[in-house]
UniProtKB/TrEMBL annotation:
The lineage of its organism: Bacteria, Pseudomonadati, Pseudomonadota, Alphaproteobacteria, Rhodospirillales. This is enoyl-CoA hydratase. It is an enzyme of class 4 (lyase). One of its GO terms (biological process) is fatty acid beta-oxidation. Keywords: Fatty acid metabolism, Lipid metabolism, Lyase. NCBIfam families: PRK05862.1. SUPFAM superfamilies: ClpP/crotonase (SSF52096). Belongs to the enoyl-CoA hydratase/isomerase family. InterPro entries: ClpP/crotonase-like_dom_sf, Enoyl-CoA_hyd/isom_CS, Enoyl-CoA_hydra/iso, Enoyl-CoA_hydra_C. Pfam families: ECH_1 (PF00378). GO terms for molecular function: 3-hydroxyacyl-CoA dehydratase activity. Could possibly oxidize fatty acids using specific components. PROSITE patterns: ENOYL_COA_HYDRATASE.
């Protein structure tokens, strides 16, 4: 399927979505978010896709929600269309692992969208920020909540109240991103990471994602109980038998996603 605002490709078991509005630094227009939702639907439905990568250009992952599109919205426009729930939450409901590969600007909604992914790999030139305060508004796609969980209250307050940008190094030091790679290597490195995950059992990677996400939504006791149930359930899969037998037989496992 052809999209207006994104490029979509698969590389083996990895589905790649590249945000593609270069003239607007990949500003997240309603059309782009719609395209992204449709692409994620297609990747989720495709059993051959195990992992999804969301990326932008070398200059911008995304410079935020489209300011030109939203500048004149009234409260009632925003309320009735539930701006911006629709579409954006598709990223958070994705059941397959989704990696954000961020080069350049990840600002406002761009930073929020990267944080909706499961983890972030940053290029050395990445810049993260929640600059909405400079526009007379505040983060609206989870920035105040997710950034606080990633980096803690003090730095989240600093970022959201000053609107300043954080470079890749600072983002790595405070746990916003898991790894930093040179800009020119970003796509290759992220693909390698995605392929390593894609080689595992798909249902098990999905269970891992569910379990880690539960850490954000439950008490510790509930989360540990949930994890234990999934762990026990993994013993009903062929892939657990294959994985453990492969270890004992000193060979590589061959998972069948069952
Ligand atoms: C619409 C945008 C845009 C945006 C950049 N552009 N960001 N258009 N919405 N968020 C457009 C510019 O208008 C310009 O178009 C072109 O992209 C290039 O941008 P420049 O500003 O000329 O580039 P540069 O000087 O390199 O500066 C880069 C930048 C700056 C620092 C990233 O563009 C910037 O500050 N952008 C806005 C960042 C921001 O405030 N984001 C938060 C948005 S609010 P023309 O036509 O002039 O060439 C938000 C709320 C989320 O995200 C809430 C939930 C959705």
């Amino acid at each position: 399927m052809a999209y207006e605002n994104i490029l979509v490709e698969t590389n083996g078991k990895v589905g790649i979505v590249t945000l593609n509005r270069p003239k607007a630094l990949n500003a997240l227009s309603a059309g782009l978010v719609r395209d992204l939702g449709a692409a994620l639907d297609a990747f989720e439905a495709d059993v051959n896709v195990h992992v999804i990568v969301l990326t932008g250009s070398d200059k911008a992952f995304a410079a935020g929600a489209d300011i030109k599109e939203m500048a004149e919205k009234s409260y009632m426009d925003a309320y009735l269309e539930d701006f911006i729930t629709k579409g954006w939450e598709r990223v958070t409901t994705c059941r397959k692992p989704i990696i954000a590969a961020v080069a350049g600007f990840a600002l406002g909604g761009g930073c929020e969208m990267a944080m909706m992914c499961d983890f972030i790999i940053a290029a050395q030139n990445a810049k993260f920020g929640q600059p909405e305060i400079n526009l007379g508004t505040l983060p609206g796609a989870g920035g105040t909540q997710r950034l606080t969980r990633f980096v803690g209250k003090s730095k989240a307050m600093d970022m959201c109240l000053t609107g300043r940008m954080m470079d890749a190094d600072e983002a790595w030091k405070c746990g916003l991103v898991s790894r930093i790679v040179p800009v020119d290597d970003l796509k290759d490195e992220v693909l390698k990471i995605a392929e390593a995950i894609a080689d595992k059992s798909l249902p098990i990677t999905m269970m891992v994602k569910e379990a880690v996400n539960a850490a954000y939504e439950t008490t510790l006791a509930q989360g540990v109980r949930f994890e234990r149930r999934l762990f026990q359930a993994s013993f009903a899969t062929d892939d657990q038998k294959e994985g453990m037998n492969a270890f004992i037989e000193k060979r590589q496992p061959s998972f069948t996603d069952r």
